Amino acid sequence: MSELATGVREICDRSGGDRARMMDIVQEVQARFGCVSGEALNLIAAATGVHRVEVEGVVSFYTFLSGRPKGRMVIRVCDDIVDEMSGMRPVAEAFSQELGIPFGGTTPDGQFSLEYTACIGLSDQAPAALINDVPVTYLSSDKAREIVAALRRHGDPRKLVHRLGDGNNAHPLVRSMVHNSIRSKGPIVFAPFEDGSALRKAIAMSPVEVIRDIKTSRLRGRGGAGFPTGMKWEFVRAAEGEPKYVFCNADEGEPGTFKDRVILTEYSGLLFEGMTIAGYAMGAQLGILYLRGEYAYLRLLLEHFLDERRRRGLLGRNILGRAGFDFDIRIQMGAGAYVCGEETSLISSCEGRRGDPKNRPPFPAQRGYLGKPTAVNNVETFCCVARILDQSPGWFAQIGSRQSAGTKLFSVSGDVASPGVYEYPFGVRLRQVLEEVGAESPIAVQIGGPSGQMVGPADFDRTICYDDLATGGSMIVFGPERDPVYIAKRFLDFFAHESCGYCTPCRVGTELMRKKLAAILDGRGEADDLPYLEDLARTVKFTSRCGLGQTAPNPVLSTLKNFRDAFERRCPARQEGRRAAFDLAAATAEAESIVLEQAAR
Amino acid sequence: MSKPRVATASLAGCFGCHMSILDIDDRILQLIELVEFDKSPIDDYKGFTQRCAIGLIEGGCCNAENVHVLQDFRKNCDILIALGECAICGGIPAMRNTIPLRECLAEAYLDGPTVHNPSRRIPDDPEIPRLLNRVYPCHEVVKMDYYLQGCPPPADAIWAALTALLTNRPIQLPYELLKYD
Amino acid sequence: MSESFTLTIDGVEVTAQPGQSILQAADAAGVYIPRLCAHPELEAFGACRVCTVKVNGRPQAACTTPATKGMIVENDTPELNEHRRSLIEMLFVEGNHFCMFCERSGNCELQALAYRLGIDAPRHDYQYPARTLDGSHPEVFIDRNRCILCGRCVRASRDVDGKHVFDFVGRGKGKRIWIDAESRLADTPLEGEDKAVEVCPVGAILRKGAAYAAPIGRRLYDHDPIGADIEAKRVGAPAAKGGKS
After folding, report:
1. Which of B80, B129, C7, C202 is the right S-S partner for C71, CB 3.0 to 4.6 Å?
2. Is the Cβ of C78 closer than 8 Å to some Cβ of chain A?
3. Among partner residues A60, A361, A504, which is closest to C169 by beta-carbon distance?
4. Among C102, C105, C242, whose Cβ lies nearest the Cβ of B178?
């Protein structure tokens, strides 16, 4: 048997040939053999009983998986808007020059591949990149050259880390240069916590009482949609079907979001405790933490803390001595797909499938993971749960605003003096936040990331909460020299890249919006384009199947609404009915060059 | 009162749509009662003599000359109608749109299995209009006002559209006349 | 078995059975809701979004949403039909649809929906993507230029034929229908009589040697719009003709 055949067999055996562990299988095969080749697809299919085309469907879905060999070291430069504003372009150029390959290329010696990647959760220390699993931050073109030289010398991305970050970033299991950049601490998430304290209080109550407490606290989901957590748990508990599952969505991929990174680094105790309480309340025995591939560098640390909790009786069988209270947590790694932050996509991915969203109904609370009732909650939500049990629902409910209890973590980046994570009570005025983060004469703020909305100074006195400016936490600030049209275009680049392609409006519509915005930026816009864009955006929003498609048009709609003059300036009425998008010189350039080349021969 | 003028052109098309204009049969006699033909292959006028009410465009734009003719039509006609699939979506000529121009020319003039071309040259006489990188539907080059689908559009559809426009009625085609083939 | 109930579609009361989707209930009642990926013999899929209706004011895919008692459904409204036109036009520009020589023309559901909704030209720019063909199989060919990613072949092959010949690879605009083999359809267990071949709504998966069987004028949608068969079931209603609404 070939080395590949033996290796694949071993990897598949370890997962018990379980098709639901396909993500683990293909990721391990890639880690060991550089890619999931056609031959590997055949072998995996044979070992798991899954059709080859299904395995291929999975591998081709995720950005971090590849069917073709890549370099031993893959440099992924984060190309989100904040990184670009912080000087990503010269960094990218330096990498490309130094390696002698374009983006998307691999060096002939098979050592390096160079790629762009969507937001990696380091907008507060941009420009940043991932080299294999290792994050490198605050890049400059000089640093990029040094990095390539060093990697050529020692070939080990981990050796690039000279100065360790703060807190657990310096932990021997992490050893990362990433900084937490916690800028302001509140009473709920960024506060001291003693492991087990909340769980002890929880098991002193009945599961139903725990859910009642969560309802009393008026906790709503922190991912952005704001569904009442207690209600969701009640649905899961009441749903027919066993076993039940608790999922933690740690796939924060919204550009400009990084608060979960900080929680996972420093406050995982709070998070795991929240998940365990959820397990108790809903009668679940397994929790899955879906960790985005970009945060793979935190995996060993998290596994370590899970082991610690098992050792201390906070996870595993008969938790805290309570007979029959069994609950454990495993980590499922993602592989670079923003859509997997959508709860049903996340479940698909955990089932070892393409990260396609599922049809609703049934909702995950009725039929989720492997068809069983499943509660999917945000990282921050679980932290709130632990704090609510530790303090009291009443204490929690009096923080924040009327409809939005508690605090919210904001990941602040862009044109500000102090990017980082801020914990504010809900109901805080945007203007106050802008002042405290050191935003100098901002012209626009993207609230809730690209899927949220872009607001201008007229909205700065609004409050941040579920009924006014709702947010999952990303806040990108844009200064006077930034261009709303360009920003909208870059956000649509992102959505078009991340669309799973399942439904028509999102698959086609995001691409059409992206191209139209590009044409407008290119000076090829005309007056008709604006109503066209608006109609297109509305159709995509109205008809898309999941949250990605339903929010992808937001950058177009909110910039058209709040920054219309920036569009109109670029879209004049055209002369003589000619289409601005058509450029005869450009259209004949190829023919001209063919003729010229022939004449030169 | 002078009659409204109608102009027609065949760009990257096969003249099938013009054949379909002629297919309105004896109604063509009624048509010339209603309109005067201006620039058109039908009467062989090479240029516009006056401003026209309606321009009928067959075919998309595959070369620079097509673009110039189309822009000239836009300038000289109040209403422009994209006549047939090629004008609307590029049609058969647009099958080359998924292949780089360089490869198309090499296949046609150098490497194709039936090519006999001892000079090994791609035709490049300055008199030959430069090809565009792809075939463009008319509405991507100038603003078009109406679209008559079909390959070719049925004569009845052309008749219905022209008479509607000439009598200031909206174009309303019965189900059977909206066909893409 | 629980009892039947009623819901309202465009102001008309419609009787539904428990377990029916809005689409199924509408079909049974002779109300046509435009659709592409839905197929009566296959599991609902929810991909094309053409059957989007308003349910109590909110957009929902009629094919995947269960009918419930007292539901207020809007279907044939100018707003919804405009979204549908835009979606159909997206599918036309996304692929390479050359109706003039396509073997499916006249019997094609995509084309027929465009006729029914009165689409004379797409508002979107043509994308002219480079797509592949596969003619390796003796009985069947794939032309991905025409594929609208409705997933009917995937479901039919998996659930009816029990073969799983087809599935999707790639993501976003790179998503393609693919086959359970390295690259040749001939290397799969597909047979010409398979359900997966029969259910393709467009000309992407076709049997060889069966093209142009019906002459123009005698094809499925030459005279009656798509959905006319469903509407004929409605008591006392004449079959609708196409045109903009």
Report:
1. C7
2. no
3. A60
4. C242
Inform me whether the pLDDT recorded for C245 exceeds 60: no
Pairwise CA distance, residues C138 & C42, whole Å? 26
Domain C5-76, classified CATH 2.40.50.180, yes or no: no
pLDDT higher than threshold 90 for residue A263:
yes
**Which of the residues B135, B151, B180 would you substitute to probe the C interface, choosing the one with the greatest number of C C-beta atoms within 10 Å?**
B180
- DSSP per residue over B142-168, as a string? B---EEE-SSSPPHHHHHHHHHHHHTT
Nearest C-alpha in B relative to C119? B178
B36-37/B5-10 β-pairing: parallel
Q: Smallest Cα–Cα separation from C188: which of C225, C220, C221, C140?
A: C140
> Does any CB of chain C come closer than 8 Å to the CB of residue B89?
yes
User: Which domains, from first to last, does chain A contain?
Assistant: 3-59 (no CATH), 73-162 (3.40.30.10), 183-397 (3.40.50.11540), 407-478 (3.10.20.600), 484-577 (1.20.1440.230)
Q: State whether ipTM is beyond 0.85.
A: yes
Band the pLDDT of C244: cuts 50, 70, 90. very low
User: What is the set of domains in chain B, with CATH numbers?
Assistant: 5-95+135-177 (3.40.50.700)
What percent of chain A stands above pLDDT 70?
Answer: 100
- Subunits close to C (at least 3 CB pairs below 8 A): A, B
Q: Which amino acid is at A339?
A: V
pLDDT in tens, A370-406: 999 999 999 999 999 999 999 999 999 999 998 899 9
Mutation choice for B interface testing from C94, C97, C99, C226 by most B CBs within 10 A: C99
pLDDT of residue C238: 57
Every domain of chain C with CATH number 3.30.70.20 lies at 100-207
Residue B87 near chain C (CB below 8 Å)? no
Chain C residue closest to B96 (CA)? Answer: C128
Given a cut of 90, whether residue A601 has pLDDT beyond it is: no
* pTM for the whole structure: 0.96
Q: C229 pLDDT exceeds 50?
A: yes
According to DSSP, the residues that pair with A400 across neighbouring strands are A405
Residues of chain A in contact with residue B132, where contact means CB-CB under 8 angstroms, are: 587-588, 591
Beta bridge pairs of residue A425: A407
Closest CA–CA distance from residue A65 to any residue of chain C (Å): 11
pLDDT on residue C242: 47
Euclidean distance between the first and the last CA atom of chain A, given in angstroms as a whole number? 54
C107 has a chain B CB within 8 A of its CB: no
Residues from chain A that touch B101, judged by Cβ atoms under 8 A, are 590-591, 594
| Runs of H (alpha helix) within C37-190 | 78-94, 109-116, 152-155
Q: Specify the CATH architecture of the domain C100-207.
A: 2-Layer Sandwich (3.30)
Mean pLDDT of C215-228: 96
Residue C243 predicted with pLDDT over 50 = no
Eight-state DSSP code of residue C98? -
The predicted pLDDT at position C236 comes to 67
Q: What's the alpha-carbon Rg for chain B, to the nearest Å?
A: 18
| pLDDT at residue C148, rounded to an integer | 98
**Percent of chain A with pLDDT strictly greater than 90:** 96
Cβ-nearest to C241 among B147, B175, B180? B175
The answer to whether B123 and B109 have CB atoms below 8 angstroms apart is yes
Q: Residue A584: its chain B contacts at CB < 8 A?
A: 64, 67
Quote the strand ranges of A306-465, DSSP E. Answer: 328-333, 374-378, 407-414, 420-425, 428-429, 444-447, 453-455, 463-464
pLDDT computed for residue A17 by the predictor: 80
B107 touches chain A (CB under 8 A): no
Averaged confidence pLDDT in chain C:
95
List chains adjacent to chain A, taking adjacency as at least 3 C-beta pairs closer than 8 Å. B, C
Residues of chain B below pLDDT 50:
none
Q: C-alpha A172: how far from its chain's center?
A: 25
